[in-house]
Structures are given as structure tokens and as C-alpha cells.
Amino acid sequence: MIAQILASEHPARVLSLTSIMSGTGNPAMPQTAPDIMGLMLRPSPDPASDEACYLSHGIAFARRIADTAYPFDEEDYRTLIMKEIRRGYVPGGFGR
């Protein structure tokens, strides 16, 4: 939401904005599919103790939210997830 406010209040300072997983907050609008919500709310496995399970969870989520108009490249997502883990997996970081 911070990026959206910045873009609306200071449009000259924002070249572009891609809002992902965002909504209006209006309950009359279509809601997230229950299976996607389940994937989002289920705790992710800890990659330090079970890397394979963490990868499986991440790939399942990415596959489910991917656009069906394009082929899903599982190897690309596997590589991306591994880069994210190696760069710095800090589960509590989203709370900052």
C-alpha cells in the first residue's frame, strides 16, 4: 500500500508501479480462490530443515497463481526460490 500511496501522491517521482497480490478491500469484488488462500495461509516449511519440502510448497504456490496463458517453467521457479533462500531467508522479515 505504501507504493500505491507514493504513486498517487507523487506521480512525477514514480516511473511505474506493479502491484502484486493487491485488492480494493471491497468485499463485493471477486475474492481469492479458497485453495490459493489455503496455500497463502499455510505456514511454509523451514528451508533450513527441509529444503525439498520448502521448494515443493513454493513451486505449488507459484504454479497455482501463474497465468495459464504462458507455460509454467518449474526449473526457473526452482532456481528463483533457491536464490531467495541463499540471499537471506528471514521468515519474520515481513513484519517489519
From TrEMBL:
Check the record and name the InterPro entries matching this protein. AB_hydrolase_fold (IPR029058)
Q: Name one GO molecular function term.
A: hydrolase activity
Q: Taxonomically, which superkingdom?
A: Bacteria
Q: What are the entry keywords?
A: Hydrolase
Full protein name: Hydrolase alpha/beta
